[in-house]
Amino acid sequence: MSSDPPRKRPTRQEREEQAAARRRKRGRGRPGEDPQGNMGVPSLGVDGPFGLLWADPREVAPAGPRRGGRGRSGGGLLTRDEIVRAALQIAATDGAEAISMRRIASELGVGTMSLYHHVPTKDDLLDLMQDVVMGELVIPDDELPGNWRDALAAISRRTYLVYRRHQWMVSGVWERPQMGPRAFAHIEQSLGIFAGLDLGVQEIGEILGAADDYVIGFVTRQVATERALRRSGLSMEAYQQALEPYVQRLVAQGDYPNLRRFVAEAGQAEDEPRFERGLAFMLDGVAAALERRDPSGA
């Protein structure tokens, strides 16, 4: 058995540098690249900065090695979609931190290296996973209300449910800046709900950004609270009971009159009504701002 250390898979940046070096050696570059490898418009190939996310499917091997008999579905060809689905299941169960090529291979009952025929790097895998989730945000056209307010409320509720289902998307380790084809389908639908209104592109972007900030912020805080409670081993009710003597001692000093009233009157609010009330506040604000606009620009 060789004593050499296991070979490390190249990162996306390293693959990009290696591909550029090969093209320079052959005396040709990709579209938008000069002979020295300087970039104009980035390539959309598998060696480009976006990896598989925007790659031409014809450039990606359609089928990898045949899976062995120990896999959950027995024989058959391993597919990229199957790998992504397995990764999504792992993330949903154990969080994004648990995702690894070795774990996915174990779940599928295949060798780890067989995955790389379909997904060259973990970065590619994460981008593909995110794109699948973004696709879930799209509402069927026949279910989308016809007016902007109800449509934005429906998209916000769908976003809430999707991020709750894939709560690893708001975890600290999940930082994926890429936008894939399914993300643009969601953006296109969101922009379309304002068709016919006298709104500029910047205004529409700010409204959609405010809605996303509210929804994703709500989910992020909700998930963080749940994780903190799990670490403490307490329910929310038990946590509040344990904290109450400290809060009462604090407000009894008289330095926090507003907090004193809040502690005395506030009960434990349920998350679902709170989400809907906050969404209504946000939509009311947008509607009021649109009503104040002067279409003449004066």
Structure overview:
The protein is an all-alpha fold and 298 residues long. It is 55% helix and 0% strand. Mean pLDDT is 79; it is low at 25-42 and 69-74. The protein has helices at residues 12-26, 80-94, 101-108, 112-115, 122-135, 148-165, 181-192, 201-232, 236-251, 257-265, 271-292. The N and C termini lie far apart (80 Å). It has eleven helices and no strands. It is flat. Helix 8 packs antiparallel against helix 11 (271-292). The protein folds into three domains: 9-49, no CATH class; 58-135, Homeodomain-like (Arc Repressor Mutant, subunit A, Orthogonal Bundle); 137-239 and 282-292, Tetracycline Repressor, domain 2.
* CATH homologous superfamily identity of the largest domain: Tetracycline Repressor, domain 2
Task: Determine the N-to-C terminus distance.
Answer: 80 Å
Oligomer classification: single chain
Structural class: mainly alpha
Residue share in β-strands: under 5%
Summed over residues and divided by their number, the pLDDT gives a mean of 79
Overall structural domain count: 3
Largest sheet: none
Helix % is 55-70%
The shape, in one word, is: flat
Order of helices and strands: HHHHHHHHHHH
Briefly note the CATH topology name of the largest domain: Tetracycline Repressor, domain 2
- Tally of extended strands? 0
CATH first level of the largest domain: which class? Mainly Alpha
CATH architecture grouping of the largest domain: Orthogonal Bundle
Count of DSSP H/I helices: 11
